[in-house]
Predict the structure of Small ribosomal subunit biogenesis GTPase RsgA.
Amino acid sequence: MSEGVILKALSGFYYVDGKDGAPTVACRARGRFRHEKITPLVGDRVVFTALSDGSGMVDEILTRKNQFQRPAVANIDQLVIIASGAVPITDPFLVDRMISLAEWKGCEALVCINKCDLDAAEALYATYRSAGFQTFRVSAETGEGLSELYAAIAGKVSAFTGNSGVGKSSILNALEPGFGLQVGEVSDKLGRGRHTTRHVELLRLNNGGLVADTPGFSSFDIDRLEGCRKDDLQHTFREFAPYLDGCRFVGCAHVKEKGCAVLEALAEGKIAHSRHASYVRLYEQAKEHHDWEDK
Ligand SMILES: Nc1nc2c(ncn2[C@@H]2O[C@H](COP(=O)(O)OP(=O)(O)OP(=O)(O)O)[C@@H](O)[C@H]2O)c(=O)[nH]1
Ligand SMILES: [Zn+2]
């Protein structure tokens, strides 16, 4: 028996990495997973048995560190959130929602601003750096900044996400020329075919990292932060942490309360306005959702 990672799931087969250059093994899952209603996921760390015909059998799924429903992946170490100050300009709210999702699921959030050859996006860069995130400025076009990004994903399991046309495929191709992912004009990509279900796959980098190929913001399960209650949300904004104990009222929502230490920090410029605005928007969503759900 060996240990490996599921890189791809397709038609009942799970493609498990062959460590140290050994070929990927196409495995079936033991029947008991079906009886126990457990579906192996891409990213799962598994124990498998190689069979004499070259195929294999997944015997055991090791405990997951986290899991996402859309795309269906497990054990993501970090979300690499790609943004751009050039067309198509990224709405910071979408970045903040992804960051909260990452924090909620227990993975690191990295912010990577692409298309710096066209626009350096100083404000975005300053916002995320000062909020305490690893923030990169890159250009898939010129190669600027890519070596820092490459180093940050070495040895980790990363999922790249970002609005359509921001350059996710271009960055991955520039990092690993062997990938040959399809890059398109923004307008071409809006046509038919873009909405067909895509299978997630983990791609292996030469630096030991694995990356999930490019799900867009819309395909990540971010419509609502699954299970994240309005009172939990404050903890997904890491730059609020130093102030959370300083509010006058226990259970302060940090929206418009008197004596709120978060709002004071906002007024003093210690918290970015766009970040707090995203918090308020997510807070309202969480409130509505759970009011509805609790009835
Ligand atoms: N100037 C410039 N153009 C870029 C850069 N990165 C990507 N592009 C262009 O932006 C367009 C979209 O790039 P993609 O890599 O296909 O974007 P994507 O994020 O993978 O898009 P989806 O697959 O729709 O989610 C292409 O025309 C790229 O050539 C960059 O750093 N600078
Ligand atoms: Zn407060």
